[in-house]
Specification:
The chain contains eight helices and no strands. Helix 7 packs antiparallel against helix 8. It starts with a helix and ends with a helix. The protein is mainly α. The chain has one domain.
Length: about 160
Amino acid sequence: MEGVWEEMNQMPPFKIPELVNLMSETQPNVMVYLMGMGGDILNQDEREELLFMGTAVWKAMIDSAGSIPKVTQKKIDEIEEINISTLESLEGKSNSAFQAASEAIIENHNQKDILGFITEVLSELAEDDEAIRADETGLMFIILKTVVEALDKAAN
């Protein structure tokens, strides 16, 4: 995941839309989910970071698995429903509380490297980048966790 993150951060700006378009073609439901979530809660910078991170997750999982069958909206909805209770427990938590809760969730997950990386990046962005509000890291984590789990279930 770290390699994909570095690769995407070093990509020329005109290449990012090409990657997003490829993701839209291969995983349209995941893209719709990423673009539709947090609309009234997340600010523009947070939505952009969410889309960038979601695209990085997709790319890392494609690089690892080869190809992943299309994720259905029903599968995303099922996974999201399971994750809602987690979101409620993280909502409004401080950055340190978010990190502790995330570590507990990640510990036994079969995509723990990707989820761990997501947690690390969100924490860094909340601390170092005024564009990401610490109170919204929990929501962003749950959205990205839903994407990871939907892609993982489709791949396996």
